[in-house]
Amino acid sequence: MSTYRIQGATGEWEVVIGLEVHAQVTSNSKLFSGASTAFGAEPNCNVSLVDAAMPGMLPVPNRECIRQAVRTGMAIEAQINKYSRFDRKNYFYADLPQGYQISQLYHPIVGEGALTIDADEKAGIPEDKVIGIERIHVEQDAGKLMHDQHPTMSYVDLNRCGVALMEIVSRPDMRSPAEAGAYVRKLRTILRYVGSCDGNMEEGSMRADVNVSVRRPGEEFGTRTETKNVNSVRFVMQTIEHEANRQVDVLESGGKIVQETRLFDPNTGTTRSMRSKEDAHDYRYFPDPDLLPLELDDSFLDECRTSLPELPDAKRARYTGELGLSDYNARELTAEVETFARFETLLAATATALGKAEKDVATQVANWALSIAPGVLKALGDEANPANSTAEAQASILKMQDAGEISGGQAKEIYEIVLKTGREPGEIAETEGLKQVSDTGAIEEAIDAIIAANADKVAEYRGGKDKLFGFFVGQTMKAMQGKANPAVVNQILKDKLG
Amino acid sequence: MTELTNLGVKEIRDGVAGGDFTAREVAESFNAAVAAAAELNAFIVTTPDHALAAADAVDAKRAKGDDLGKMGGVPIGMKDLFATQGVQTTAASHILEGFKPQYESTVSQNLWDAGAGMLGKLNLDQFAMGSSNETSYFGNVSSPWRKAGTNAAMSPGGSSGGSSAAVAARIVPAATGTDTGGSIRQPAAFTGICGIKPTYGRCSRWGVVAFASSLDQAGPMARSVEDCAIMLEAMAGFDPKDSTSLDMPVPAWEAGLNADLKGKKVGIPREYRMDGTDQEILDSWERGKEWLRDAGAEIVDVSLPHTKYALPAYYIVAPAEASSNLARYDGVRYGLRELPDGAGLQDMYAETREAGFGDEVKRRIIIGTYVLSAGFYDAYYNQAQKVRTLVARDFNEAFAQCDVILAPTTPTASFPLGENSDDPLAMYLNDVFAVPASLAGLPAMSVPGMLNSDGLPLGLQLVGRPFDEQGVLNAGLAIQQRAGFTAQPEKWW
Asked: What's the gap in Å between the CA of A61 and the closest CA on chain B?
């Protein structure tokens, strides 16, 4: 249970939040036309006759977009509707050439599902929480108006027009800005795992309409407002924070909340009214007569299901369960696709190199991947060429370390050189003298000299002053210029000191 | 030598193939006939060069011994609802005046690929909305027919009125039409020619300016059943660019023509006997029954109980779709733009659409917008869709008892231009017999039956099962052979 409350003048208020996330479907071409979806092209270069709504043009559904929506639905364990239909949402605007958006009002492709946001004490989420998802439907994006190209006119760029979006509609299940933030992040992670949306909020691939209302804890839902097109996790949280406080102020000063559409201003972190319910468009939804209902067959659904990757929750459970990683490591490694992908590649390479099971090297690899390697990379800054950081090179470093041939410090030094030069780790160890000496002869020689030179300390040690063992280790390492294998040094010292 | 412009599709195709005349001679004859018939106002633009180029290509193929195609050497008229690359395409509306598409509609491309050439773009009711060809921005089309003893200009029917007038006047051997609620069949009936609307989905809608997407269907208009069969074969076919296109092979309708109806049952729907139907129309219906019986068919009574709801349902569904389909004509990207000084976006929309659309188009946009509005959607649009389902079910049940249905095409013969133009409801009633087959997506054809006492043609309508264009064409052929309809309008233009 969230304990997040707005402290009003008249008491506590609870915030109720629902999110409609618009996620741009990853596909090469648009939802109903063959035009490219590439981001950043010159204006009006990715526009087909269909996108420009030329007379007599007809939409043809892009199978890949449908597939991605279905896979996304499966990833949130939602009901997949084998029968769905496209409807037209009618309104006039210059970025909407058809005069209607093709969407799915009455029969969405994905029904009821859910996702779990993870407990986060610091953020006021004491335990995992399931957030209901009402539906996912597929629809066309609109074009873009450019108001800064001409003093008196606006220009229209239709590149984005007709690109497929998934609208993912949550239940009003969130109770704090932190929960909403966690929901958007988790959703983005799932979309990225599935590969159905790149989740890039800066480029507008993901944006949220934020529905907020307030109520006295435990009472009926209040009237909600909807803030449109919020395009970062931080802004979603700011929107809720501001909007909830604004609503409390209105209510406590005797006012009423009007159901309305609002806009978020990122410069001030506040929201302002865009239009009220009375001015709301009448979209005149009706089934698009240019399109037949979508009927999905079992083989299509099977392909969608089998093509799903391991999803974040399952992966995390496997990392802690099978691989024996800590909760922290598992969470960090599974947060992003790139992270776990790199980890799993390195894990496989290391296990192979060492001839051990993955679970036996997982913790070593996780520590390397999460803290050691990033530390070296960061310290090097621009000197590093991350492309040199192959799984093969890293596995070879970890193997040398595991075999006691190099120390932890040497591993970092070798990795540094790898990053700078792309040279082979084994060769670096040899050439640069970055190897531990495990040769007992050399170590014994050094230790004998140290014992001979420190007869007093030897006597004290033998007399019971155990702490002096560290002194002998230090002396030995110094004599060996830090290249002695600590395990071997310890063993010989113990033998000789008795 | 016979007057080439008296020849139909089959005769021209066979004559060109057989070397009786060249395709160029044919094209030149029709180009001249078109040029001499400006008074009919059947064309919005003429394209004599297109016709000649296509003819020359056919003649060249013949010289090489290549296949000339299903329509090899036949010049046709193209209803100006089909997008034709580089040739103005207007839907008879001011809002698209001057619009030259960069693309060719699938149906017109299919025809060119089959060896046909284009004589010009035919006039029509604006956006195919109308039953008399009086709503065109480019003026009324006059039927070549006149009421005996008068000189009043008569309606060629609509919306494919330019097509029907041109075919009847023999300035084209055949023309494309489109039928949303009777727009091929009613004008065919008014002008004494044949026209078939195939099963919904047979002809691609890609590149056809949309009126009501779930009803729009292209088809041929010509002077004989055989010519319709030939041309429909050339027009039809699966098109992946149209999601509602039928993914079925195109049957060999011409080769399958057979007027022997032994073993076939012809249904007579009792609900089509409506008050206000002209007695001569009812008489022609009786004649039609006799002809089909003579061809070997058994005549059976059938019932289509929801017939009376079909027209009101049609006038909800079609305007609803039209109101949305026509939203794209907004002055932003192509066509007319009215931008008064200081006008904003909303003003531009209003001014452009005010100036660009005719009254009938505006009327239907307003009706359509209304029936889709919040609070009215269930009462109108949803209700109309239910009626549509019931109308389709009526046909389904009737076709359990018969193979093809015979009915009048229209409740009256052609009327003088201007007679119904102040009364939209009277005008809408003209499609009362045509609309049910449209709502059900069924193949339906009008063939000429006889002349009435005013010397005006009357049409008979045949409606078939889904995909059974052959059954419709065969029954049409049986009537054609017995009706002996050879009347021609007296040339006054």
From this structure: 8
Active-site annotation holds for B142: no
Q: Does CATH place domain A440-497 in 1.20.1600.10?
A: no
Rounded-to-integer distance, Cα B168 and Cα B153, Å: 15
**Rounded CA separation B431/A30 (Å):** 40
The answer to whether residues B262 and B400 touch, using CB atoms and an 8 Å cutoff, is: no
Fold for domain B4-261+464-483?
Amidase signature (AS) enzymes (3.90.1300)
Cβ–Cβ contacts within 10 Å for residue B317, how many? 27
Residues 6+ apart with CB under 8 A from B130: B136, B158, B159, B161, B360, B427
Contact of A145 with chain B, judged by CB distance below 8 Å, is answered with no
Instruction: Give the pair of three-digit tokens for residue A166.
Output: 């998934």
- The secondary structure of residue B233, as a DSSP letter, is H
What are A369-378's pLDDT values in tens digits? Answer: 999 999 999 9
B403-444 pLDDT per residue, tens: 999 999 999 999 999 998 788 888 888 899 999 999 999 999
Provide the 10 A C-beta neighbour count for residue B272: 20
Provide the 10 A C-beta neighbour count for residue B116. Answer: 32
pLDDT score for A256: 95
Would you state the structure tokens that stand for residue B296, as one six-digit string?
Answer: 């070997």
Active site residue B79: yes
The radius of gyration computed from the CA coordinates of chain A, to the nearest angstrom, equals 30
DSSP letter assigned to residue B41: -
Dist CA A223 CA A266 (whole Å): 24
B243 vs A61: CB contact, 8 Å cut-off? yes
Buried b (16+ CB within 10 A) or exposed e, A243-262: bbbbbbeebeeeeebeebbb
Distances (CA, A) of B222 to A209, B117, B154, B167: 57, 15, 20, 6
Segments of chain A assigned to CATH 1.10.10.410? 440-497
Q: Mutating which of A57, A95, A105 best tests the B interface, going by the most B Cβ atoms within 10 A?
A: A57
Structure tokens at B268: 């007579």
CB contact under 8 A, A92 and B334: no
Measure the CA dihedral A359/A365/A369/A375, to 10°. Answer: 150
User: Quick one: how many helices (H) and strands (E) in chain B?
Assistant: 15, 11
Min Cα separation A424/chain B (Å): 55
CB-based contact B319:B213 (threshold 8 Å): no
Which residues are paired to B82 by β-bridges?
A: B208
- Taking alpha carbons only, the member of A219, A220, A207, A274 closest to residue A243 is A274
- Among B89, B243, B381, the residue with its CB nearest the CB of A58 is B243
ipTM of predicted complex = 0.96
Query: Bridge-partner residues for B154, per DSSP?
Result: B416
A156: chain B residues, CB-CB within 8 Å: 332
> Tell me, what's the pLDDT at A478?
87
Give the integer Cα–Cα distance in Å for B460 and B185.
9
Give the mutation candidate from A284, A292, A295 for the B interface (greatest B CB count, under 10 A). A284
Q: Which residue, among B202, B197, B196, B198, has the nearest Cα to B246 in the 3D structure?
A: B202
pLDDT for the residue B1: 45
Average pLDDT in the A449-476 region? 87
> Strand, coil or helix: what is A245?
helix
State the catalytic residue, choosing from B183, B323, B414, B438. B183
Q: Which two tokens stand for residue A409?
A: 């410090």
Task: Tell the residue number behind the tokens 């406590």, with chain if given.
Answer: A252
From the list B431, B460, B462, B456, the residue with the least C-alpha distance to B448 is: B460
Write the CB contacts of A425 (distance below 8 Å, at least 6 apart in sequence). A393, A396, A397, A400, A414, A415, A418
Residues 6+ away with beta carbon under 8 Å from A111: A73, A78, A79, A80, A81, A135
pLDDT by residue (tens digit) across B82-139? Answer: 999 999 999 999 999 999 999 999 999 999 999 999 999 999 999 999 999 999 999 9
